Amino acid sequence: MPLITLGIESSCDETGIALYQMGRGLLAHALYTQVAMHNEYGGVVPELASRDHVRRVIPLVRQVMSKAAVSLDQISAIAYTQGPGLGGALLVGASIANSLAYALGIPTIGIHHLEGHLLSPLLSDPAPEFPFVALLVSGGHTQLMRVDGVGLYTLLGETLDDAAGEAFDKSAKLLGLGYPGGPALAKLAALGRPGLYKLPRPMQHSGNLDFSFSGLKTAVLTLVKQSDNDEQTRADIAYAVQEAIVDVLAHKARAALTHTGLNQLVVAGGVGANQLLRSRLTESVGSRGGKVFYPALEFCTDNGAMIAFAGALRLAQQQGRKDYRFNVKPRWNLAEIVP
Ligand code: KG4
Ligand code: ZN
């Protein structure tokens, strides 16, 4: 009987479903993004997100099963995102996962969303080997972790206020760009000219591995208010914002490698899709003899594959449960999870 894990991700505004088979790899995955629906409101509306997950999960499960030619009786476990994220949205994935698993008599496993991101570069080839340093940069988190194995995570540093993705999103909003702001800001920055505006690099030289991005947002607000609103000026500002965020991330990631004495860096989370961050990290880590690993672009932002994969690894550690009682954890510190 093949060990096939169904993964369900529903923590925010993306419904991600995937099937992962131990020993074979990813069989199929599908994603539905609610971006267009939330764009109208300038950010995620939690209640709308939950209701849309209800509509999407089952059809997407059918879709991946048909793509992979896998039938219900071949699925051996169901992994779902248990947290952190939006409570209602998480509950949709958790309740469908547990009721389907109950009907099939198979185990479930609740996965920490960031563990999914953290392990997602292992889906690529070549994959990093433990131990490595992970730079987790998503819409809600900015953390540097030391990863010694599945479940063996040590926090090296994190943001004291806004996340890097939030800094992208909030700056984009100030520049009149839509949601999500990161990709929109990066696109506008490509038209910008270097060196016209200087923005702060908060905590770059703090001597530790923590971050702070809220001061940057204030600086952008002041700059936008003082400047013309023409397309070129906005592009020049976007350029400076992206430079500032990427500079700080690259500087601290390199410092984390020096601090731990490791030479593999894994980048995970939505901001990991940023091309400037990728080239800057590859250059800066490469120059000290290190190597940077990125998940495939489609697995940088939220997706079901990382949840199916993390679930498969956790199930291999006998962590599946068959009691079908579940609770979601909208706030959940990665350091609290059981190795
Ligand atoms: O990991 P993710 O999809 O969702 C969370 O778990 O938060 O990350 C979403 C974040 C958003 O802040 C989005 O603006 C940012 O990732 N992002 C980017 C890019 N693509 C997504 N930021 C900068 N450049 C990008 N290309
Ligand atoms: Zn995420």
Give the distinct bound molecules.
Answer: 5'-O-[(R)-(carboxyoxy)(hydroxy)phosphoryl]adenosine, zinc ion
Q: Please give the count of helices.
A: 10
Gross geometry? globular
Number of strands: 10
Broad CATH class of the largest domain: Alpha Beta
Reading side by side through the largest sheet, how are the strands ordered?
A: 3-2-1-4-5
User: Looking at this structure, what is the CATH superfamily of the largest domain?
Assistant: ATPase, nucleotide binding domain
**What class would the helix/strand composition place it in?**
alpha/beta
Mind explaining what this structure looks like?
The chain has about 350 residues and is α/β, with parallel strands linked by helices. It folds into two domains: about 5-120 and about 300-335, ATPase, nucleotide binding domain (Nucleotidyltransferase, domain 5); about 130-295, ATPase, nucleotide binding domain (Nucleotidyltransferase, domain 5, 2-Layer Sandwich). It has helices at about 35-40, 45-70, 85-105, 115-120, 165-175, 180-190, 215-225, 230-260, 275-285, 305-315, and strands at about 5-10, 15-20, 25-35, 75-85, 110, 130-135, 140-150, 150-160, 265-270, 290-295. A five-stranded mixed sheet has the order 3-2-1-4-5, sandwiched between helices. Helix 2 (about 45-70) packs parallel to helix 3 (about 85-105) and helix 4 packs across helix 10. The longest helix has 30 residues, at about 230-260. The mean pLDDT is about 95. Zinc ion (ZN) binds near residues 269 and 270.
